[in-house]
Design brief:
Helix content is 47%, strand content 17%. With 361 residues, the chain is an alpha/beta fold. Among the domains are: 3-164, Rossmann fold (3-Layer(aba) Sandwich), CATH 3.40.50; 293-360, 2-Layer Sandwich (VC0802-like). Helix 6 (166-189) packs across helix 10 (228-252). The longest helix has 25 residues, at 228-252. It is globular and about 70 Å long.
């Protein structure tokens, strides 16, 4: 791949363009908002000038509702040898393209499983997709050259290619992305009119659950409108679980000992099923979940504190597997939770204490 055209310079399109430009590909940028394309170009993602002739690959990075129209225009204009989109749904756009009577041998639907609650070119980074799954949905009609171009794009972005059927992909993302976003928004909505005294008690748990609720509603309306059926099916199942859980909680208020035991059993059931589901979420590098020990360190909210902790851990020969930061409400301090292999925890604890860090059990 020597040349590419990225149509749509939001978070995903600009991030892909940055990764391609970093690998020496000449990237042309196009957007319905010329100012956004100029912004992406200023960031080093390519040029906002139109290509002189057909490019090797056209990457369509527009909302799902517009994918088919934009792809059809590009394909009819012969702007590239190969075409792909990066929308978060795959079955609908392909069926729309088929209904338009287009030759789809030069097209492949794809979806990088990476993003952010932020949007726009200024949120883009060349490493956004690094180590993340990138779904490819070829059909028996997909040209081998186009599949190879898509694989080359995935490689340049340092993502991990995953081949799936388009409709299977849509059911999967409903489960792992679209439905959780709505649930996160519903939880966050409870905070809107909550008393200030209650909101000030927010800890890491509520921050984790509501983080993705900060995303742009307009973008998510486009996404959910393209995949409503599978999401609705999942929410219906969650609604059933909620009904059962509410009944169990009400039973715990009963004066009847039998009902209280039934309520306790119902709550335990949903919690245990939650444990079982969480255990299936892939861990580091996509491997099976791993049980790490947590070393909690109290830090001041000052520049360089995290760098010092990581440097001290490195001097002790300890690899930090993961990290979380919990900020204290109304205070200039925080708690850094360092996840390490169980056998490394006592070594790291001793090393950090020796270097003056305050360790919390």
């Amino acid at each position: 791949m020597r040349t590419a055209l990225v149509i749509g310079t939001g978070l995903i399109g600009t991030s892909a363009a940055l990764a391609l430009a970093r690998r020496g590909v000449v990237v042309h940028l196009d957007d319905h908002d010329p100012e956004q394309a100029r912004t992406a170009a200023a960031l080093g993602a390519g040029t906002d000038k139109a290509p002189d002739g057909p490019v090797d690959l056209a990457v369509v990075a527009v909302p799902p509702a517009h994918v088919a129209r934009v792809l059809a225009e590009a394909m009819r204009g012969g702007v590239a040898r190969g075409y792909l989109d990066v929308a978060s749904v795959k079955g609908g756009p392909r069926r729309e393209l088929e209904s338009l009577g287009l030759d789809l041998t030069a097209y492949i639907g794809t979806h990088p499983m990476s993003g952010s609650e932020k949007s726009g070119p200024l949120a883009a980074t060349a490493d956004l997709f690094e180590g993340r799954p990138w779904v490819l949905t070829p059909t028996q009609d997909t040209d081998t050259e186009v599949l190879n171009l898509a694989l080359e794009l995935v490689s340049h972005c340092r993502a991990v290619p995953v081949v799936m059927d388009a409709d299977a992909h849509d059911r999967a993302v409903a489960l792992v992305s679209h439905m959780p976003h709505l649930v996160s928004s519903m939880v966050a909505a409870r905070l809107e009119n909550a008393e200030e005294a209650a909101v000030r008690l927010c800890g890491q748990g509520i921050r984790d659950v509501t983080r993705i609720a900060a995303s742009d509603p307009r973008m998510w309306i486009d996404i959910l409108s393209a995949n409503p059926g599978p999401v609705a099916d999942l929410l219906s199942e969650i609604a059933s679980d909620l009904d059962e859980t509410v009944r169990a909680l009400r039973a715990l208020q009963s004066a009847d000992e039998v009902k209280r035991r039934e309520g306790s059993t119902g709550i335990e059931d949903v919690l245990r099923r939650g444990n079982a589901g969480r255990a299936r979420v892939p861990g580091k590098h996509g491997t099976a979940p791993h049980a790490y020990e947590v070393v909690a360190v109290l830090i001041d909210d000052q520049p360089g504190q995290l760098a010092r902790i990581f440097a001290d851990a490195g001097m002790a020969g300890i690899n930090i597997e993961d990290v979380r930061i919990e900020h204290a409400t109304g205070q200039q301090i925080g708690l850094v939770q360092l996840m390490v292999e169980p056998k490394a925890a006592p070594v790291l604890t001793a090393a950090l204490r020796e270097r003056g860090w305050s360790i919390r059990q």
